[in-house]
User: Fold these one by one.
Assistant:
Number 1:
Amino acid sequence: MKALTINQFGGPEELRIQEVALPSPGPGEVLVRIHAAGINPVDYKLRNGSMKLISGRKFPRILGGDIAGVVEQTPKQSFYRPGDKVFGMLSIKGGGYAEFVAVKEKQLCPVPENLNMKQAAAVPLASLTALQALKKQGGIRPGDRILINGSSGGVGSFAVQIAKAEGAYVTGVCSARNMEFVKSLGADHVIDYNAEDFTKGKQLYNKVFDAVAKSSFSRCRKILKKGGVYISTIPNNGVWFYQVFNFLRSKKAGFIMVRPSGEDLLIIADYIKKELLYPHIYKVFPLHDGLQAHELIETERVRGKIVLSVIS
Ligand SMILES: NC(=O)c1ccc[n+]([C@@H]2O[C@H](COP(=O)([O-])OP(=O)(O)OC[C@H]3O[C@@H](n4cnc5c(N)ncnc54)[C@H](OP(=O)(O)O)[C@@H]3O)[C@@H](O)[C@H]2O)c1
């Protein structure tokens, strides 16, 4: 099969189309013919080697943690049948930038009827991060006041919609060019980070979700209500340290590490079916233009999501 691979760590130019062996499914795994693969910032961090302690150094390596496609082969006992449309988040091993992948059945979910394959591929990792941060870790409740920093990005755009779906009052933080977009996602209030420092405002929040990890707990604690929670997507700015001492404080600090979960994707699929959530696609690239897609994701300027089309 064709796959977009890297043979060593490095820049986007390391991405090459290569002929590789078809993956053979292990126990409990489904073979999926991939139609589209979502792109996330973690992909370029895996490519350039900044996550090699976690990812290991085995090459050739196929990147890509998000897929949507059609079931080709199932285990003996399976919920799925060949021909079913599925989407899912893969493990850190990746494998999404390819024509086929073998993936644990429990990481998959049926594609909602109101999404096409490219839209479905844009959903898993970023929406699961937002869901697991806000619902599971943050314990979001109706009426909560929530601030989402980086509300125009992949994670942030899903976080705004999930927080609204759960009945929160949402403040989004983004740059001026993305304010209308963030309002269109349902945010009640939007702050331009170049015009206003949100950590110095008078408004207090039950939760601050730093989806782009550009602020810190020490700055955000001032705008948290008593019992409030700060969650970041990257363990920087001392968040580990603050987390250890949560038991001493009424305002808590935390960090989310997203996990693949077909069960959680069912919750996401339900929001999508009810039209409470949709993926905004900024740009679609053919698989052989992975280099350009990686150059774009590294700019940190993507609005919503970008996707690789494997079958056009
Ligand atoms: N720990 C985990 O499990 C996990 C899971 C998912 C993601 N992540 C990490 O979370 C981060 C965000 O992921 P993502 O997929 O949302 O990234 P993304 O889609 O690439 O984020 C791009 C967005 O970030 C906004 N942005 C850039 N600088 C900003 C700033 N200073 N303040 C506010 N917004 C800013 C940009 O808007 P403007 O152009 O308007 O600035 C753009 O819309 C990445 O570092 C990623 O690796 C971690």
Number 2:
Amino acid sequence: MSYISANRDDDVFEDPNRFDILRDNADKHLAFGIGAHFCLGASLARLQLRCVLGELYRQLPENSLAEAPMPMYSVWFNALKAMPVRTCPVAH
Ligand code: HEM
């Protein structure tokens, strides 16, 4: 099973290499696996990401890429080793 291949299946996703979390069928991704071994922590991971990203954006709404992200490739899944961001805190 190769999740990176499944998540770029052009029978499922139009223009599959374009990062677009708003595409109509974005929920068809298999980042949390599928079937009997579907990730047991998927709900917790989604909640954590929603909290962390929401709070980061609330505290640091002004941000932009400082350098090109450093990808990490593997046969199983891809990830980012680093994504330096330039930001500026907002006074509350
Ligand atoms: C963004 C975060 C996460 C991603 C992308 C992710 C991804 C995955 C994937 C792809 C699998 C299936 C592996 C396979 O096909 O054999 C998996 C399984 C699993 N994940 Fe996650 N996971 C995440 C977070 C978590 C968290 C937070 C927990 C626990 C607190 C967790 C617990 C597990 C467990 C126990 C399994 C094994 C399920 C089984 O084999 O029946 N994961 N995860």
